[in-house]
Amino acid sequence: MPEPRLERTLAIIKPDAMSRGLAGDILSRIHRAGFSIVAIKSLRLTPFQAEGFYAVHRGKGFFGELTSFMSSGKIIVMVLEAEGAIARWRDTMGVTDPAKASPGSIRRDLGTSIQNNCTHGSDAADTAAFEISYFFASHELL
Asked: Which structural domain, as residue segments, surrounds residue 103?
């Protein structure tokens, strides 16, 4: 079995979690799960920026609702680093639907719906590369 390698992934604390004051809890869970936070910033996406970030979903029925939601309030974007970070962050978050997420996962414990599930994470290495570069310049990742 190959050894896990150090990798980076993008994580977002979404507007629903920010408005409910859950950022501290989520950041604490990130630290307890053994991730290093390489870069972090708080911002509010414009609708145009949200559409660009989620361009892969353009044309799908939920695109407008998703981009409207993601531009509805402050978010925190982070680059997390750990061995096998992409899979580990997705496991830490839990599946998209909080009702189906594993006990102890962020989405199970804190999410309220498929849309209001508190967090986002990259799903693959190529997605992570795009998503990280969408929010962070290379000099911010040193």
From this structure: 6-43+74-141
Residue 120 annotated in active site: yes
Number of domains in the chain: 1
Q: Is residue 37 part of a domain?
A: yes
**Which of 50, 30, 32 minimizes the C-alpha distance to 40?**
30
Give the pLDDT confidence score for residue 79 in this predicted structure. 98
Could you list the mean pLDDT of each consecutive 10-residue stretch along the chain, which spans 142 residues? 84 98 98 98 98 96 97 98 98 98 98 97 98 98 94
First vs last C-alpha separation in the chain: 30
| Annotated catalytic residue within 31, 57, 120, 139 | 120
User: What 3-state class would DSSP assign to 88?
Assistant: helix
The domain that holds 13 is classified in CATH as 3.30.70.141
